[in-house]
Amino acid sequence: MATPIPQKGPGLAGMSLHQQQQLQQQSHLLPGPGPGPGQPPQGALREISPVFLCRIGQETVQDIVTRTMEIFQITRATQLPNGVSQSQAAYQDRFGKLQEHLRQLALLFRKLRLLYERCVEMTSDVDEGPSELVPYLGDDVSPVRVEPCGVAVNQERQEVLEKVKQKNQEMKTLMDQMRNLLWDVNAMLTLRK
Q1: What is the torsion angle, in degrees rounded to the nearest 10, for the CA atoms of residue 106, residue 109, residue 113 and residue 116?
Q2: What is the pTM of this model?
Q3: How many CB atoms lie within 10 A of CB 122?
Q4: Is there a contact between 119 and 50 (Cβ–Cβ < 8 Å)?
């Protein structure tokens, strides 16, 4: 009756070939061993870019988060058995919904794994690693050449900074006045009691 939660593992290694093919057909992304009805031909598969697969992966992650939130909502709405009898039908209904969400969640994680493996396969020829694409904080980054600003730009910057300082001072004064007013009101309310 209860569906077991899939164990963590190396990905698709624990699945049979038939289960992998079914999952590929369900995801509509990767064709099975041969072109079947409703599957794109092999030429169309080459046109799918890693960017498109990443976008589908992002949508899959959003679906996973949504399903997880629904699972938390179901468990939050479930009453603890603290002496209150709950109808067996309501319990079975919630249990069925929870099992369905968990099953869908497992399928979404398998789909995400397939998308990840396909993206890695498609981008294996890219020479650039993540460190070349996104500089990390501790890495030596080549300094950006900054051209000297003109006198007019520096003067305008100083004027804007002065205006910001003036507005900040006005806001601080207003906040102090509001704080004092609230303090007085609270003091008067306390004296009335």
Answers
A1: 170
A2: 0.43
A3: 14
A4: yes
- Sequence ranges of the domains in the chain: 17-32+45-125, 153-193
Question: Is the torsion defined by CA of 124, 127, 129, 133 positive or negative?
Answer: negative
**What is the per-residue pLDDT across 63-81, written as a single tens digit (0 to 9) for each?**
999 999 999 998 888 776 6
Residue type, 5: I
As a three-state string, the secondary structure of 111-155 is HHHHHHHHHHHHCCCCCCCHHHHCCCCCCCCCCCCCCCCCHHHHH
Q: Which residues of 43-61 are buried (b: 16+ CB within 10 A; e: fewer)?
A: eeeeeeebeebeebbeebe
Residues in the chain: 193
For residues 61 and 76, give the distance between their C-alpha atoms in angstroms, rounded to a whole number: 22
The string of DSSP letters for 30-61 reads: S--SS--TT---HHHHHT--HHHHHHHHHHHH
